[in-house]
Amino acid sequence: xxxxxLIGATILLFVFVTVFYFVRQDAPAVDVSSxxxxxxxxxxxxxxxxxxxxxxxxxxxxxxxxSGMLALPQGQGxxxxxxxxxxxxxxxxxxxxxxxxxxxxxxxxxxYIEHTATPASYPTLFEPPRPALYVLEINAGLADTYDFSxxxxxxxxxxxxxxxxxxxxxx
Length: 171
Prior knowledge:
The protein is of the alpha+beta class. The protein has five helices and seven strands. The chain has a seven-stranded mixed β-sheet. The protein is globular, with a radius of gyration of 21 Å. The model is unreliable at 5-36 (pLDDT under 50).
């Protein structure tokens, strides 16, 4: 009787581990290193604080954003670049970690901060009170750590400015 229970428990454990393994293989999370290796990074500054950012400058990249990533490496972010200023709305669909979202106008002036937006907030939409041309997503808490406010300024690196002027990402 004990042998049957032991064999049954062993089989059940084997099935559970096998199913868990295959379910994890289908998980939507993305290895962070593959994103940073496959996407070019550009420097931007908020009040002289540097961030290495990947761009979301076309519709496909904007729809993906940081969704599915396991984490955002320290000092990195995602910069959303739009063709025209508008009060763009964001949500936390398929996110795995909290972020700060910073909306900037065409002159680079910070117009709104959404502090520590969490995955649990989905499907809430976050929207600035005024139009923006850029949205920067960074790790949660950094806007407070660096004391960013509506007097903060976004500055793009010369390389990124040139790229955007040439339309290298916007489709």
